[in-house]
TrEMBL record:
Cited InterPro entries: Ankyrin_rpt, Ankyrin_rpt-contain_sf, SecEffector_AnkRepeat
Organism of origin: Phytophthora nicotianae P1976
Pfam families with a match to the protein in the record: Ank_2, Ank_4
Protein name (Swiss-Prot/TrEMBL): Uncharacterized protein
């Protein structure tokens, strides 16, 4: 059983305990279960649906219902988000309809425009009938709904839904395009026979059938005598049979982009057919396209026809993109060769095998631009190879680049060959990136050392082993920035280790930035350990980032002040938990701006929260 399933089992247990045993439940068991329900995520329902764990839905829903840390309107928000996901995550047979009903019973407002759109898009008949039952005025209030249902159902081939919509609105003129696009010939024939359909849509319908590679559907529509497809859309023809039919019927004029499409996708048979029927579409640019996308078989074919000839840019392009097989084939079968750009660009993209082959088999060589390209893009092995084979100068900062990349083998090579520009920044860089092996190597083999920045940045990035090594082997130490950075990023073990082993401590910024991240455990530790005058900026940061528990703790334990602007900020950002807390300790949340800001930022649960607590300001009598 996974950890998540164990948690959901706990939720089931608490329901049974409360309703089955009442006061006879063992207190410590209830306490443990309550600890779980208190910590249920604000995204629990959404996570279950996105991960398609529909079998856990009811248990998670019960956990949300029972949760003690979510305020009522936060639960409503979860219900609204969940009902939007259910149509795609659960079919009616999998309990999707029942799940939506449960959510709707809890919060009718969850069935908003987005949820309706999701149900319509899936086009499942039981869900659509349920939707109309819940919203009997749906088609009157949203005239486009019926058309959207028809389009979605036609595209998916949902004949039951199509017939249902047609029965509701028998006089509507129907577009055949969507059924054609999906290749649903049986449904298409039914629509032609039983509905009023738009003859002007036949051209677009034929185009959709062709684009979908549905030959039988295309033939059926063509026999309805559509107008010729005149606007030259970019049709992607995927089969010889379909192309031959389009060619024979002349329902569409072929264009040269099809040649480039086939070359790009490596569709050799289609390309051969196009050459047999439309040789005028071929040019050297087609060869470039095939080379650029690594299609060797296409390159071989194009080499046999007179319309396309190789140029030096072809091998350059193959080298740039790392297609060594094409580079080798062009070398063996054409005389155009390449230019210095081949090696320069291969270096830029890190194609060391291409560089090695070009150097062994061609004479064009490279320019200093190759080294610059490789260095700029972090191709450290290419930099070394270029230096050793072309005597190109190493970049001044190459030692730092290697320290950042973590390749100890290359750091050792650079040290042994006595090259590179080394500095304290080299070890600082290795420490910041957590490369303990390189830090140890530099400590043992070189004399530059490091600065306090090494431990500061290692602590900030949670590289505890690096921090311990620096602490035990070097004298530079760190600054208060070490604990500040660790606090900001939520690294509690690092903060605790620094407090126990170092004397630098932190500044007030540690609490401020920890609050911004909602790192409550660190906040409590800092306050218990360091007696600093913590800035009120901490509670402002906690509010701004939606950390309700951090706000509560700062208010009660550090006596930090709430401001009237905090309620407006919470309404704007949809932080209902913070809004609720502010309301328990002040009257800031009663400001009508909370309602209007929630409305303007499309946060319906904020609006409902305000109305439930203070009434609708638009209906007040003054």
């Amino acid at each position: 059983m996974t950890e998540s399933e164990e948690n959901f089992t706990l939720t089931s247990v608490i329901v049974v305990c409360r309703h089955g045993f009442g006061s006879r439940v063992i207190p410590h068991i209830v306490h443990l279960i309550q600890m779980f329900t208190e910590n249920i995520s604000e995204q629990a329902l959404v996570d279950v649906l996105e991960e398609r764990k529909s079998h856990l839905f009811t248990r998670v829903l019960n956990a949300v219902d029972e949760s003690l840390n979510l305020v009522h309107h936060e639960k409503l928000r979860q219900y609204r988000y969940a009902i939007q996901l259910i149509p795609r995550a659960m079919t009616s047979d999998e309990g999707g309809l029942d799940a939506m009903q449960q959510l709707y019973d809890r919060y009718p407002g969850a069935l908003d425009y987005e949820a309706v759109s999701c149900i319509i898009d899936v086009a499942e008949l039981p869900m659509l009938k349920w939707l109309c039952k819940c919203k009997p005025l749906l088609f009157k209030q949203s005239p486009d709904s019926a058309d959207n249902i028809f389009s979605s159902a036609s595209l998916k081939g949902r004949g039951d839904v199509v017939r249902w919509v047609v029965k509701l609105f028998p006089d509507t003129v129907r577009n055949l395009r969507y059924a054609a696009q999906g290749g649903h010939l049986k449904l298409l024939k039914w629509l032609v026979k039983h509905t009023k359909w738009d003859e002007k849509s036949l051209g677009r319908s034929l185009q959709s059938a062709i684009e979908g590679n549905h030959l039988d559907t295309a033939i059926f529509i063509y026999n309805l005598k559509p107008e010729k497809i005149m606007d030259k859309p970019y049709l992607t023809l995927e089969s010889i049979e379909l192309m031959q039919w389009v060619h024979d019927t002349k329902c569409w004029d072929f264009a040269d982009y099809l040649v480039f499409y086939a070359a790009r996708k490596g569709k050799l048979e289609i390309l051969q057919w196009l050459h047999a029927n439309y040789p005028e579409f071929f040019s050297n640019n087609v060869m470039n396209t095939a080379v650029e996308h690594g299609k060797l078989e296409i390159v071989k074919f194009l080499h046999t026809i007179p319309q396309t000839v190789c140029t030096s840019s072809d091998m350059d392009l193959a080298a740039k993109n790392g297609y060594l097989d094409i580079v080798q084939w062009l070398h063996d079968h054409s005389t155009e060769g390449c230019t210095i750009h081949a090696m320069d660009e291969a270096a830029r993209h890190g194609h060391l095998d291409v560089l090695q082959w070009l150097q062994a088999n061609r004479s064009e060589g490279c320019t200093p631009q190759a080294m610059e390209n490789a260095d700029r893009h972090g191709r450290v092995y290419c930099v070394r190879w270029l230096h050793e084979n072309f005597e190109l100068a190493l970049p001044k900062h190459f030692a730092n680049t290697l320290a950042s990349s973590g390749v100890l083998k290359l750091v050792s090579w650079l040290h042994l060959c006595g090259k590179g520009s080394w500095s304290k920044d080299t070890m600082d860089t290795a420490a910041a990136n957590g490369h303990l092996g390189i830090v140890r190597f530099l400590h043992e083999k070189r004399r530059e050392g490091c600065t306090k920045k090494a431990m500061d940045t290692a602590a900030e990035n949670n590289h505890l082993e690096v921090v311990k090594f620096l602490h035990g082997n070097r004298r530079e130490g760190c600054t208060k920035a070490a604990m500040n950075g660790a606090s900001r990023n939520g690294h509690f073990d690092m903060v605790k280790w620094l407090q126990e082993n170092r004397r630098e401590g932190c500044t007030r910024a540690a609490m401020t930035t920890a609050a911004a991240g909602g790192h409550l455990k660190i906040m409590k530790f800092l306050n218990a350990t360091y007696k600093l005058d913590w800035s009120n900026k901490a509670i402002e940061n906690a509010v701004s980032h939606g950390h309700t528990e951090a706000v509560k703790w700062l208010y009660y334990h550090l006596e930090q002040k709430l401001l009237s602007s905090f309620a407006i900020r919470a309404a704007r950002c949809d932080y209902i938990g913070i809004l609720e807390f502010i309301n328990t300790v002040s009257d800031f949340s009663s400001n009508t701006s909370v309602y209007h800001v929630g409305l303007g930022n499309k946060n319906p649960e904020v609006v409902k929260w305000y109305v439930d607590h203070y009434g609708n300001p638009r209906k007040r009598k003054y």
